[in-house]
Amino acid sequence: MTGFGGFVARAHAAGQLVVQPRMGFSDPGRMRGGLIATKLADATTVGTLTLDSYTRVGANDEARRALAEGAALNGYPIVAHDAATTASVVEGLRGQDFPVQIRHGSACPEHIVDALVRTGFDATEGGPVSYCLPYSRLPLRESVRNWERACQRLAAVPGSHLETFGGCMMGQLCPPSLLVAISVLEGLFFAQHGMRGISLSYAQQTDLAQDTDAMFALRRLGEEFFAGLDWHIVVYAYMGVYPKTPHGALNLLAQAARLAVRTGGARLIVKTVAEAYRIPTVAENVEALEHAASAAALTSALPVGDGGEVYREARALIDAVLNLSDDLGRAFVQAFALGYLDVPYCLHPDNAGRARGHVDASGRLAWTSVGAMPIPGATGRSAGITSSSLLTALSHVERTFDWSPMETPPSPQQHLASPVTKTVMRIQDTALTAAREYLRDNGFVELLPAIIGPVTDPGVRGSKQVDVDYYGHKYKLMTSAILYKQASLLGFDKLFYIAPNVRLEPPETASTARHLAEFHQLDVEISGASREDAMQVVEDLVRVMVQRVVTTMPAELEQLGRDADAFKDLLVSAFDRRTHASAVADLLEIGHPQSADAEIDWQGEEILSRKSSRPFFVTDYPKGCRGFYDRENRDVPGMLRNFDLIAPEGYGELCSGSEREFEYAKIVARMRETGENPAKYGWYLQMVREGIPDSAGFGIGIQRFIRYVAGLDSVWQASAYPKIPGQVSA
Amino acid sequence: MKASGFPEDAVRLRARTGAAAAFPSTSSYGQELFGATGAAGDAIDELRLVPPVFVPERLEKLIDLAREPLYSDVDLMTDIGGFSSTLPVYLSAFGSTQVANSSLGVDASRQAALLGIPMVIGENIVPVNGYASDRGLLDRIQAYASHVPDGFGGVAIQQSTEDADAEVWNLVYSHPSAQPLLDTGRLAFELKVGQGAKPGLGGMTVLAPEAAERVAEQFSLDPLWGDRVLRSSSPGTFTDEILRQQIRLMRNNFPRARIWVKLPPARDVSEAVRVAWLAGADAVTVDGAEGGTGWAPTSFLDHVGLPLAECLRRIGPVEDCLLVTGRMWEGTRAVKCLALGARAVGLGRAALLAVDTDPASGLLRLAECLALEMRLLISALGKYSPDAVSADDVWPSTAQKVEVLR
């Protein structure tokens, strides 16, 4: 086999999933750059030229005019550019080891097929139904005629390949059986008009198990109908409302890659983290290609299934359409006129528009109404769909992935042996070495932290302490070193720990990418210091650690894909300082519901974090969101003399610190204000009553800091032995 | 010696038994529920509900229904502290006393769930009974969660000062079994500041010495009786700032839970409810001095704390969610309380007695009767929802009672 199909078949035989972007630029140089980046990505890739909207609707003169005016189009105008220009875009790139496919979306594709054949391409995508109903007002009858001619033209090219877009249609809320049926029927239409290389598509939907059935159904039908042809299955990463968080988008993409590998899919069209907001850049596409490839590499195929209910429904639909006419084009037109095929929520005049789908309680797509479709045993719900239930259904995947737990760590063996973990641990070692040197040079003494005690930091935000039976008495594992830090001031003016903490955080924090049930803090306390003194030490420490890593480990950062330029600002400019009140005001202004007398919530912190190019301090948190030990401002009651350090780029909080309460009566009153029972703080209160120095200090979350420096998706990747809230692990 | 006209017997009892005489006989502990003894009823009982002749709201309902409205058209659905309730009624907290420790607590939870009304779980259950033990917190949560209809009800979990050591709220908030309630917005935490039967004191139970030893680190113990020990919680120290900050901290730490506050019938109750609401509490419960209890010094039952009527008068008409408890069991007292500003009423002793009468359905039947009475009374006032009744609907029986409504 040669050409596009042959390349995919060879990769599939070698156990590699072919990954492919959607990518199109009107500027030839930029287009070539995109293809080069795709080819060089650390993945088995094929290239894409996605065409622009003018070309799609046949408005080639407008496309030419825009090019002449230097306006950027939303894709590559293959008809408007002359053949020599297009040849120069792919020169030296396109070949047996890197096929390039033309993707467009046109119901009048003949001029496009002419242009692509003329410029040496042999692979494209489309279909009389799938490129007409969702996008075009053109009557289906005309689209069928256009595609008949386009197929015949393309089929004359040896090794040519045509992919049906039938597995996507409207992108969401269409139960899989109809997608599978349209995909197979369009493939049969292609074959009827001479195509020998065909790919059948399926777009990832709402439920992995249902998608798995759908893929097996498609595979079984492919074997039944396409024997003797060069065919494979291509998966589209989810085509509906896309997750807005990076981890949500990446997890959804990884799930699409796993779906493909498990079910025998040979190719995957990726989506990027930027997809929810805008057209992605080349770099974002490369990130998506590599992320999908690495997820695929860790996945193996499942035993082949029979496609279950999806197969039965799809087969019934296919048989009903095939029985209408031997001419598949005519059968399509009749099938839609009779409502035998009826795409939910599609407004095209030739679509019956009686079918409705919904996301059921288990997250699967189901029929609300099948209209006149000959689907056996489908009863559907009778309840109507309201606009709010429709919106909820449309955002089902977005919500699931934005708020789903991060991908869980692999086994301890895999995690510890992974090159990423090894590199991250070496970065941590370098950063901590730099921190220790800096602190020692500045007169700090390192103490070894306490592990258990009768009482510990009461903690914040709903995390539970761990009880330890201590000779019949209830002791606690340390949630932070704060009480012992203050006590240690009796012997040392400047001290630090690298202290382990255990906090049983609420299970919901498993999805924040920044909570661990067990983590470490670089804990510092300075006798007689002010908040500003402490903030200066934090700033110096962070800069010293980052500088050491950037200077001594550039190769490691590059290996992790961390751009060293991310720290340019941090290394040369002072960290900005802003108050909690101004941060709240900013968030309210952009419509984020942030309470003025509470901690800035995680989403709010991420929003602020994304707006900055270097870490910044937030100061003056209100009482009522922090522990009793953060000192209240004597001049502004209700405001604390404390601070957080927030990392840029969405990484969020790295460090909390404060001047400390040290006067006995104040501490007791503050304990009551935080709902604590002073009785259990016996040793601490006795010590405070006898007098401890005033101080300021802070704790830098080491795993969070390393996550930021290494640019990791989740904080668990920065722990050798990650414990994710709510998950049982090694 | 005789001393007629003087409480001679009571003095002699004290002379014989000392401090133990400050309490009811321990033989009644776990068998009896206590409360104010005034048999004639209180100021609320003396009020009358007074229907008018002219009923504009009935006309509105008539237009809405296109037929004459009946009592069955009263819609009792009420928002109680952020939860949807089928009735303006909820199940009050039973603490860790022996009465509530029996299977009655679980039976009451199940029936409250079936009714679709919220339930409060009392303080000191975790330190005394444990979390997952029989009849512990988890059993009651599970009994409730597995019977409550979708969209209705909710569970409020109390924590007192001693409970803070056991981290009851942290425990529940991070425990998988509470997640279904959290995910559906049906979990609240109630800060217990005090109670009606013994304002100014913390929770009290009577324990056998061996049971007392197990909790000696958390609670104060007083060996008042030869074979039994008095276990006391502290009342907790509050100032307006401490109350405000505790509520804020609850909101900060448990953003997905509702925040409730329970106040005793204190003389500054009006100021305290306002501090609580301003700090963001979703509901404030005022337990009148008529409130019941599993155990209290007899002196407190009849002589300490404001009557509920006076609490309502001092608080005045409010928009926020005010919940009241104390001798609630039938429709007239409940509707009068709604008229005087409460959003809903809590069933305490009545619920326990009902479940004791029939563990399977006693509370369901009590609520059925209560709901019917409320519908009859509210419709008689020419109104068709609990929030429509107002101070105009009650009549003070004496000039003295005019004070109640001022």
Automatic annotation (TrEMBL), chain A:
Q: Which UniProt keywords apply?
A: Aminoacyl-tRNA synthetase, ATP-binding, Cobalamin, Cobalt, Isomerase, Ligase, Nucleotide-binding, Protein biosynthesis
Q: Which GO terms describe its molecular function?
A: asparagine-tRNA ligase activity; ATP binding; cobalamin binding; methylaspartate mutase activity
Q: Which residues form the Aminoacyl-transfer RNA synthetases class-II family profile domain?
A: 494-722
> What Pfam families does the database record attribute to this sequence?
Met_asp_mut_E, tRNA-synt_2
Gene3D superfamilies according to UniProt: Bira Bifunctional Protein, Domain 2, Methylmalonyl-CoA mutase
Could you state one GO biological process linked to this protein?
A: anaerobic L-glutamate catabolic process
SUPFAM superfamilies hit by this protein: Class II aaRS and biotin synthetases, Cobalamin (vitamin B12)-dependent enzymes
Q: Know the name of this protein?
A: Aminoacyl-transfer RNA synthetases class-II family profile domain-containing protein
The species this protein was found in: Lentzea tibetensis
TrEMBL record, chain B:
The molecular function GO annotations come to: glutamate synthase activity
Query: What Gene3D superfamilies is this protein classified in?
Result: Aldolase class I
Q: Name one Pfam family in it.
A: Glu_synthase
Q: Which family does it belong to?
A: Belongs to the glutamate synthase family.
Which InterPro entries would you find in this protein's record? Aldolase_TIM, Glu_synthdom
Q: Where is the Glutamate synthase domain?
A: 188-356
TM region positions: none
Top-rank lineage group of the source organism: Bacteria
* Record GO biological process: glutamate biosynthetic process
Protein name listed in UniProt: Glutamate synthase
